[in-house]
């Protein structure tokens, strides 16, 4: 049985209980982060800590603890659960104010803080890397502040189910004829020598992996354009791929049934994946 962290204590998962009045449960009033673990070390913890602070600030939620304390909890859970490869989920909600009310409760209401691990042995060697992913396009019907990493994940869940029903691995979401991002990842195409991905704004999550991969791409003298692109452009691209903390860089080989490029994983995605994994392992803590 896993050990989880709840409001300052480590305990077996079946003893961790949250109130039915918790605003995370009643109103999806909460934020989260997912940090990967490779070889027992945290990948880009700093990036996730900075985005967490931003999500909390945007929702006027107070930060329950310092970055150093959070790091310690992450490390302790890795140790207690003997995680070599996997993910750590951190969930923070606005807590239980007593009565259900739309208004935010007073600032001194204790937030609910939960961390848990998910082991994923060999996650850097996923077989999908060899075959590539198939994606479908679906309308982006999420709310307008996708840059805040909230626990409102119902539409992404629906998107994953639509993809599954269509025999695909994931869905890329479309708004005003342009792709925003994947249901749980950022989306990229490659045309010629240029990597194209949507620019940051309120309409996509500011991926921590995205920031690192674009930095490595520029350092390797690859050209990067941050702008919206269409489904037709994706289908006519030489390559496509996604990035996320748990998938790293993963090739995409088909969009709405049309092969992208050769229909096999391409060299740019493969190179970026290698650089990302090498560099991230070097700086893991
Ligand atoms: N976009 C969405 C909608 C996501 O849910 C995620 C990750 O969960 C990402 C992008 C990728 O972000 P990161 O690289 O920080 O994992």
TrEMBL record:
PROSITE patterns cross-referenced by the UniProt entry: AA_TRANSFER_CLASS_4
Q: Which UniProt keywords apply?
A: Amino-acid biosynthesis, Branched-chain amino acid biosynthesis, Pyridoxal phosphate
* Cited NCBIfam families: PRK06680.1
- Give the catalytic activity: L-leucine + 2-oxoglutarate = 4-methyl-2-oxopentanoate + L-glutamate; L-isoleucine + 2-oxoglutarate = (S)-3-methyl-2-oxopentanoate + L-glutamate; L-valine + 2-oxoglutarate = 3-methyl-2-oxobutanoate + L-glutamate
Q: Give the enzyme class.
A: transferase
Q: Which family, according to UniProt?
A: Belongs to the class-IV pyridoxal-phosphate-dependent aminotransferase family.
Instruction: Give the GO molecular function terms.
Output: branched-chain-amino-acid transaminase activity
Name the Enzyme Commission number(s) assigned to this protein. Answer: 2.6.1.42
Quote the protein name from its UniProt record. Answer: Probable branched-chain-amino-acid aminotransferase
Q: Is Metal-binding tagged as a keyword?
A: no
Q: Which species is the source of this protein?
A: Loktanella atrilutea
């Amino acid at each position: 049985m896993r050990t989880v962290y709840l409001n300052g204590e480590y305990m077996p998962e079946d003893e961790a209980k949250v109130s039915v009045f918790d605003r995370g449960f009643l109103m999806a009033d909460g934020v989260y982060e997912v940090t990967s673990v490779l070889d027992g070390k945290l990948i880009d913890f700093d990036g996730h800590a900075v985005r967490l602070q931003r999500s909390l600030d945007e929702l006027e939620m107070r930060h329950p603890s310092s970055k150093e304390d959070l790091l310690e909890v992450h490390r302790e859970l890795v140790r207690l659960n003997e995680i070599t490869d996997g993910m750590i989920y951190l969930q923070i909600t606005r807590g239980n104010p007593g009565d259900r009310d739309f208004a935010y409760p007073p600032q001194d209401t204790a937030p609910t803080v939960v961390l848990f691990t998910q082991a994923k042995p060999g996650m850097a060697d996923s077989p999908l890397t060899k075959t590539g992913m198939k994606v479908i396009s679906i309308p982006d019907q999420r709310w307008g502040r996708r840059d805040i990493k909230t626990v409102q994940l119902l539409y992404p869940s629906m998107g994953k189910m639509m993809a599954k029903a269509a025999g695909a691995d994931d869905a890329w979401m479309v708004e005003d004829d342009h792709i925003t991002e994947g249901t749980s990842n950022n989306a990229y195409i490659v045309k010629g020598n240029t990597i194209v991905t949507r620019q940051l704004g309120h309409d996509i999550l500011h991926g921590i992996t995205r920031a690192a991969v674009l930095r490595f791409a520029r350092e390797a003298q690859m050209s990067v354009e941050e702008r919206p692109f269409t489904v037709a452009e994706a289908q006519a691209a030489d390559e496509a791929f996604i990035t996320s903390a748990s998938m790293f860089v993963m090739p995409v080989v088909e969009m709405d049934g049309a092969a992208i490029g050769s229909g096999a994983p391409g060299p740019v995605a493969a190179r970026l994946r290698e650089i990302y994994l090498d560099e991230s392992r070097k700086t893991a803590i």
